[in-house]
Task: structure prediction
Amino acid sequence: MPGIHLLWAEAPQVASDAQPGQFVMVRTSEDHDPLLRRPMSIHRVGENGALALLFEVVGRGTNWLAQRKAGEVVDLLGPLGCGFKIHSQELLLVAGGIGIAPLIFLAEKALAEGRRLVLLLGAKTADQLYPRRLLPPDVEPVTITEDGSLGKRGTVIDLLADLAEGAEQIFACGPISMYEAMAAMVNELGEKSVQVSMEARMGCGFGGCAGCAIETKQGLKLVCQDGPVLELTDLLW
Ligand SMILES: Cc1cc2nc3c(=O)[nH]c(=O)nc-3n(C[C@H](O)[C@H](O)[C@H](O)COP(=O)(O)OP(=O)(O)OC[C@H]3O[C@@H](n4cnc5c(N)ncnc54)[C@H](O)[C@@H]3O)c2cc1C
Ligand code: FES
Result:
């Protein structure tokens, strides 16, 4: 996946408490520039307190993180926020691009609990799709690419209605445009619970600065504390 990095860290205190959908605030400098930590979803939790982040280089902070070498120390704060809440047996996970980041941890937990799931995986091109060999065993992805280089041509939205039929709960992570399109599928998604992982620029990550506040149907919510996972039907467009 060009421009995407997988970073494993030994972080037993964070890993032992982490739930799918939660995130960490990562310090992305040795000095104070950039000053603010950057939020990153917990991608996977491994054995012996290992924790993985999957991230795309988009600016200074993620560029700094991508330069880290094995053995260096990275300062993580977490786990933070409210993650995904699973209360059904038949799950549909929908990943748009780098939105796969929190969904692998969710898939691993759901499978360990004996639930069944379908993973709908979309990207612009085949080389931007999450590698199949890194998927948890037992996960058969349904893939779609915008240029048609693997799977059907289109976006996850084009396959969503068909796959949603067999699902009791839907979990999604991707760009805001994907959530907007999902919110418009009132007839196809019906009364199903759809939880999405929201993005917002964050100052502190734990409810102290109000920098991540968004207006919802339930009033103002802090993405870092009330979310990042929110019900799609609560969001305003
Ligand atoms: C809860 C949460 C979990 C996240 N998990 C992941 C993850 O697992 N993997 C991953 O690659 N990214 C994730 N992100 C996004 C990530 O935090 C940003 O890409 C990162 O902060 C950018 O930092 P930077 O210094 O590299 O870029 P900057 O120099 O700060 O910005 C570069 C560009 O990215 C845009 N940008 C920066 N931060 C955000 C943001 N939060 N939302 C939308 N656009 C932004 C800016 O507008 C600008 O155009 C997550 C964000 C949130 C809120
Ligand atoms: S980032 Fe500070 S309150 Fe959410």
